[in-house]
Write a structure and sequence with these properties.
CATH class: Alpha Beta
CATH architecture: 3-Layer(aba) Sandwich
Largest sheet: 3 strands, parallel
Number of strands: 7
Structural class: alpha/beta
Strand order of the largest sheet: 1-6-7
Number of domains: 1
Order of helices and strands: EHEHEEEHEHE
Helix content: 25-40%
Distance between the termini: 19 Å
Strand content: 15-25%
Shape: globular
CATH topology: Rossmann fold
Number of helices: 4
């Protein structure tokens, strides 16, 4: 799953995950896992929901402070509120890594047109992975 850091509707997301889980079980899938990007908001809500329900969670955090990728331009690193330098493209690399794992479905909880959520959903669709989009203003 992927989602906005400011996702406001815990119940909607948890209900959606429950329905997706139920449908997968009904279709004969076992070994169901939830992969999430470890950000605050929707990712955390989804991870907590899965753990409460005994579902394996695969955490895929972005390596914000780690080395840059070949797509990075010199001098593009920024400083966060704590003064730590980070790569602003780390989230995109994490999103692509999640897509590269070829999940059966992405649940995308998008609030206020979140650019990170939209990026992950776009990458999933491009890879032929279905995306169940939840949107709220």
């Amino acid at each position: 799953m992927t989602g906005s850091r400011l996702w406001p509707d815990t119940q909607l997301l948890e209900d959606t995950l429950l329905l997706v889980w139920h449908d997968a079980l009904q279709d004969g899938w076992d070994g169901i896992e939830l992969m999430q990007g470890c950000a605050e908001g929707a990712d955390t809500i989804g991870g907590n929901w899965a753990r409460r329900n005994g579902i394996l969670v695969r955490d895929r955090p972005a390596d914000w402070e780690g080395p840059c990728g070949p797509e990075c331009q010199p001098g593009h690193r920024r400083r966060n509120r704590r003064g730590t330098e980070y790569c602003p493209l780390a989230g995109h690399r994490r999103n692509q890594g999640m897509v590269d794992e070829q999940p059966r479905l992405f649940v995308a909880a998008c609030y206020r047109k979140s650019s990170g959520t939209a990026d992950c959903a776009r990458r999933a669709r491009k890879a032929g992975i279905p995306v169940l989009l939840l949107e709220t203003a």
